[in-house]
Write a structure and sequence with these properties.
single chain, alpha/beta, Spore Coat Polysaccharide Biosynthesis Protein SpsA, Chain A, 2 domains, eight-stranded mixed sheet, about 40% helix, about 15% strand, transferase, Nucleotide-diphossugar_trans, glycosyltransferase activity, Glycosyltransf_2
Length: about 350
Amino acid sequence: MHHSEIPAPGSTAAMSPNAARPVTPAVSVAMSVYNGERFLDAAIASVRQQTFADFEFLILDDGSNDRSVEIARHHAAQDSRIRVIARENRGLIASLNELLAAARAPLFARMDADDVCRQDRFARQVAFLEANPDHGVIGTWTEDIDEYDRPFLTHAPEHPVTFDDVLAIIEQRSPLSHPTIMARRDIVRAVGGYHVAYRHCEDYDLWLRLASVTKLANIPERLLSYRHYAGQISNRHAFAQQYGAAVAQLAYRERQLGRPDPTEHMQQLPAVEALDQVFDTPGLSRQIRDKVARGAIYSRDAMRGAGFPLLIGHVRDGGNGPELWRTVMRLVLFGVPLRAMRLAIALLLRI
């Protein structure tokens, strides 16, 4: 991409939202919405108020049954940069790939329906990509807020700033906050966009694939307020995220060794028991089961769902220790006393 394709930050700041737009905008902003009415108005408004104004704003409603479409169309009626796509529910990954295909601009920016951008977010990111043509993706640090816009305390480490820092941690955790990113559209398309098998961790899998073909970094400024609340997807699907992340790391190592990624064309990830065969490496199933099971014991949803069979398998493989015994009581508190009994019996059989 040549620098001339990206206008200088602020060059369109004075442009009226309903003024005649360039044929090709500088940035395509992509937002997928599913029953997001509670926070959607503020999220859209924060994009409309950006100091860098040369963008199209694609809002895809993924079959909402609340007022999300009405809110999006209300904003679209006031701002010609907004294009609303409304259809039946197909899920987040299908929506993200549809938005990526529809994007007309050379830069592709993500935005979630429950977060809030700082006014200079796009200007800062466009400036970074203009100054660093070897970088394909730029994220930012975030400010954590709760459902009432109050500060939300987390103990998560800051996202890495430089590409060297990204590479140092990318096999352990995600180096970018998905709703903060701006990327060169064609690079994301070239690696295949979002892979459907990695449901609930599609972003981490994408960063792992992009890290092999371009540089990723973060601006160490809190240019987006990231919202935490009880109903958000990341809370409901923590176990699926943990398992998907573990498989994504295996696929990354395969690619690093020059071997094909066996998950590339899968519609869903293989069961843990199949990993030895899928990756042609004995012992992987046990390794991943033990790793994911240890992380799942703190999640109510995981222990009431698919995480529990993995935990029992981990114990049968030899897993033991005080934290697993404490999980027996945790299961009672989670409302699954029969599972607490099963775990206690499995642990006793190990003694």
